[in-house]
Structures are given as C-alpha cells and as structure tokens.
Description:
Distance between the termini: 25 Å
Number of strands: 19
Largest sheet: 5 strands, mixed
Shape: elongated
Structural class: alpha+beta
Strand content: 5-15%
Radius of gyration: 32 Å
Amino acid sequence: MAALARWCYRHRLVVLFLWVGALFGLGAAGSAAGTDYANVFSLPDTDSKTAYDLMTKAFPQSAGDTDTVVWKVDEGSVRDESVRSRLEPALKEIAAMKGVGEVTDPYAAEGAAQISKDGRIAYAQVTFAEQANAVPKELIEDVVDTAQAAERDGLQVELGGQAIARTQEPPQGTAELVGIVAAAVVLFLAFGSLFAMLLPLVVAIAALGTGLMATSLLSHVTDVPEVAPLLGSLIGLGVGIDYALFIVTRHRRGILRGMKPEDAAVTALNTSGRAVLFAGGTVCIALAGMLVMNMRFLDGVVVATSLTVVLSVLAATTLLPALLGMLGMRVLSRRQRRRLTANGPESAEASGLAARWSSYVEKRPRSIAAGALVVMVILALPVLSIRLGATDQGNHQESQTTRQAYDLLAEGFGPGFNGPLQVVVEKGDAQALATTIKSTEGVAQVAAAPPANGISVIQVVPTTSPQSEKTDQLIDRLRDDVIPASGAEAHVGGVTAVFKDFAAVTGDRLPYFVATIIGLGFLLLLVAFRSLVVPLTAALMNLIAAAASFGVLVAIFQWGWGTEFIGIGKEGPITAFLPVIMLSLLFGLSMDYQVFLVSRMHEEWVHTRDNARAVRVGLAETSRVINCAALIMICVFSAFVLSGDMEGAMAGIGLAAAVALDAFILRTALVPAAMHLLGNSNWWLPEGLEKRLPHLAVEPKEDEPAQVVAEPDGPASAVHGFVRNADGEAVEGASVSLLSRGGRQLDRVVSLADGSYIVSVPAPGTYLLAVSAASYGSRAGHVVVADGPLVYDVELAEGEVDAVN
C-alpha cells in the first residue's frame, strides 16, 4: 500500500489522466449504448412465477405500457353530452398521437364496464407502443396536457400508470446533488479548508460516475433492476465521501504533527488506507450476502452496489493520493499553516469535547449503557408490527395526479380495482372455476378471457385494496381452498400476488441471510482483533441497530408518522425486498465504524495492556471523525427522499436512521460503555484458537509505529538527554514527546529542574522526538534508536520553530 501511495503521489498527473479518461470513456460508451434495466420481480418455484410463465406462453406478444385517464363529475353523469363533448375529442387526439397504440373509450359500444355504477366516474385506457421506460417523456407530457385540458368546473380529470408517473419525477440527480451540497457543508465545517472539503467530494463523484456508467453497460449483459442505480448512488456517495474523509483526516493530522506532505500521504494510505480496504471488503461481503436469498431480482442490485463500493475504494487509494500531491500544504487551511509555522508540530494527545466525553463514559459506564439500550429498545418496538408488501401509486402524495387517479378508480370501481389478480388456468373447466371464485368471500368482480394457446385467464378484482391484509388472505383462500376443490390446475398471479410471494420468501430466507452476514462479519473481526468478545459485541450491536432502524421505518412508512409532512405520500407496507437490501448496507456500514473504532482501541491495548486506557483513547481519537462521517452519510441518505421513488425514500430514511443510531448511540455510547464493563475480557482468545487463526493486519486509523527498522517485539530502550536554551541553561518544564513516524504518541514527559528528560522506546527503530516549552519555540527531529539507549540533547531558542529534520 505504501509503494502504491507513493507512486500515485509522485505520478499524480498520470493517475488523474487515467481517471478522467475512464470517466469520460465510460460516459461516452454508456450514452451510446443506453440502458436496458429490467424489473424481474418473479421468484422461481412460486405460484405467481408459474402464472407469469403461463401467461407469457398464452400471450407472447406483450403490448406496451397501459395507463389510465380517469374523470369524475360533481353532478350529473359522465354520459352527459356536456362531458362527452369534452372528453371524446381529447381521447381521439391522444389516440392519434405517434407512439400511442390504442385507446379504449368508455363511450364505445363495448365500454360500458368502464363507467361506474353511479355514472359519476369513468376511465379510458391508453396503451403505448413501448414499455413505460421507453416511451418518450414528451409524448407522456402531451397525453397529460391533452387529457387535463378537458377539465372544467365540476369535471375532474386525472391520469395514472407507470408512464404517467415519470412526469412527476424530480429532475434526475436532484437527490445526489442535494446530498453532495449537504456533505460539502459538513466537510467545510470539519476541515475549515475549501481544498480539503473538495477532496472527498471529487473522489466520491469520480467513483460514483464510473460506477453508474459501468452499471448501465452491465444492464445489457445481465438483469439489473431499475432501482439498482439509485441504490448504487445511495451507497456510493456515502462510502465514497466517508472513505476519503478518513484518509484526508489522517493525512492532515500527519502534516500538523510535523511530517512532510508526501510522507503524511504515504502514512495515511498505509494506515487509514488499509482500514478502508478492509472496510470496503466487509461492505461487499455484506452485499454479496443477498445472493443467499436466491432472488434473481437482487443479483443486479448486488452487482451495481458492490461495483460502486469497489470503485470508491479504488478512487480513495489511487486518485486521492494523486490529488493530495497536487495540493501539498494547501490541504491545510491558511490558519493552520500559519499556526504550524509559528508554533511547530501539534501534540498527539487527544483533547476537546471528544476526550471529555470519553472520560465521562469511563466514569459512568453502567448508566450510559443502560440509557443507550433503553433508547434503542424503545425505537425497535414498532418492528414487531412490520408488514412486508408492495407500494403503488396509492402511496403517492395527495397532490399528484397518479394518486388522485388511483383514489378515483377505487371510489368508482372498488378498492381492489387497482390491484386485480390473474388466475391462470392450465387444465380444467375455467368457466366453472370462475363461477366458484365469484361466490368466494372477498371477491368483487370476476371476468374470464377467451382461452389462448390452451391457457385461460380469469381476472379477479378483490373487494379490498392491493395493500390490505384481507387481499393477502384472499390469495391464500384461492390457492389453498378454492382452486384445489375445483379440480382445476390453476395458479394465482398478478402484481399483488408477486409481492405477496416476495414477502413470504423474504420472511422464510431472511434468518439464513442474517446468519450468513453476521457469521462472515464475526470471522473477519475475530481474525483482525484476535478476540472472541469484540466480534460477539459487534454482532449484537448490529442486530440492535437493525431492529431500531426498522422500527423507525415502520413508524414512518407503515404507521404514517409524518409521511405527508416530509413529502413521501401515504403510509403502506414496507417494500418486500427492502429488508434484505437495507440489512446488507447496514451491516456493511456498521462494520466500517466498528473497524475504525475498535482498531484504535486494539492498538492501544497491544501497547499498554490497559483496557480502560485503550477504550478511552480509542473513543477520544476516533469519535469525532466517525461522527463527522456519519453526519455526511445521514445528509446523503436523507436527500434520497427527493428521488421521487418510494423505495429510494424508504432506503434513504431507513439508512439515515440506522447510521445516526449506530454512530451517535451505539459507537459513541453503548459500545465503549460495554467494553469498560467487560474489562480485559474484551481481548480474550483461547490459546488453541490463537495458534490456528491466520494473521490479517488491519492497520488502524492511527497506525502502528511505521518504518521501524527492527521487529516490533525487539528489546525496549530509551532516549534521554537535556533540554537547554541557547545560553546552555537548563529548561525546566519542557514537554518532550516521542512519536511514531505515523504521528502516534508513544511517551510524553516533562523535563526536570536540571533540564533532563527520559522517554521510553518500545523497540529499536526510527521515531519522532518533539520538544516545546513556554517562551521558547518548538523542535522536532527524527531519532534512530539501536539496541541501547540513545543520548539526545535538545537546544531551544526563543521564538524558534524547527520543522522535522
């Protein structure tokens, strides 16, 4: 990693050229090839999948997207001449548009069923020549404008359908842009430097751009669902900015502690960069856990999100050091550069609010752990009532025409009209089955289509809405009782049945999926930290975070607490596939924070064997950057409420809640409090297991002593000498710190009355000795310690600042 970082730093123009070339090359290829996203929601070995396959066999010529124009009169009937004279010309104009295949007119001889019983609501179906995504947006807008131009006082015209919904989508990239702007504000407040703020954003945008373009190309060779690029953007922006943030923070700290920019960049990549590699790998492993579900729809999601994460790691470890090389010292703010020139290198000792909070947690671990646990349990309670299903246009905002069309159809033709079931009859008497279904509880209407290729399709309209539990019960009744009793061989399909099967399969397979990703995460942490308790604690915390975040999701989207207020429409069930995707992302991101937090604690434990100090120092030195990273992710994820996609909004809110709870409650309070209570048992590992485990070096954010020329378990030694001024007089009370080449403080003492000092050295190697005193300048220099103690006298002069030799 160090060699790669140094090469990228020194050959920055080459690296920049390669990334720009890749971005524009993939962009040009993606624009030329277009996209071929496919929503393959069916599941193998399910009743709805069998029904779908039979319908495809019976009707191989699939038509384009079918949308609906609905109108309602306040008084009179839709059959009145004053209404017909406005709607019929509009429908004929729509039918004549290029790209429109057919318009079914309720005023035609066969259109009586398209008028409600009370005569106040009617609808026409507009069938386009292409599927919804392929219909030109200009055509859809012409259809909407033409239909709504027929409105007058007392006559309401609304439109619904997949193609129509595209006119309500916000401009593409709105969510991403808002997320980036919010992240920029957080970064500027954290760094106080425009250039430092831009670095994580540029890295994330480069990774996201190449990832999205590559995903669009992959859609031509494999099934990638429409929601995959959105989820790729969601995770790509979050981890891309965060990974760069960890490295840039480490780089800036190295410079502030006296290192040259190139050495600071190499050290940052060799430490935080390794942690980023490990964290990115854990996210990809968690994402790959979705494959355990054996859902074809999720395979494309795994490809898109994993590709974006891989490119984020690649950008952070190659493009970022090149950009650091271009900026040099300008990665610091002007104020920091002036302070570094005036006062010399900073002390490595953590201070400020983070250090005070860490000490507070150490003093009151029981009360803090109990309080945090109570909060998480309360937030998790709604998850007990979670119901999986499908969202549709009935969940859109009340002001949108698709929602109003949905409501009008439900008012005029019954709530089940928006989600009819298809009973596909392969063998047996379809007419007799249709008669039996008509008398079944929960059925409003039944219509049997003429057989085609030996297959009959019976359309069943339930008395309840697609999202109602009673509709699910009707599907079970048809499958378990009605169809078997009829002797026919038939299968229940339709969008409502597909999502019910999705929910059932998700519920059945979710325990295996959770066990897989928790098991893999446990093994990774076991090998990395040589402890049984640390990975067990991490697994438990991940489960608590998942339960609490899904509790928040249920309260908002299923119970409707604030849905209209935040502009995401009507409450409904949680999308069936969302738990799998969210759990993958949540476990991956939680592992990131666990790695960055515990790795610093583990490093301190290895050096001191003092658990209380290890936990205190680890929390003090990592909590600020973890909370800053979490705040950025919360901004990015929350912005996806603006995506115009209900699934995207659910994922965004759910992940934002998960990250907030994970970073601000679990990693900042519950984890360190629990580790204080557990004491030295945190680091317990059976001796037999220790010998059998492979060694996996995960360098922490604050690295192990770098560039040590001897083995780290070599003999301990010391550096000692005198601190004097230019006149040879002893300087009492001077602060003498011994630091690793990476900037980690190893020992710190204060010179005595005669100016003498002695600092302990853990092993032979190269270190940094920093000396400062009131009324004097600061001195910092590299010292090379061999097998024995090293004598090193320091001379301070008033106002002098000496950079690293």
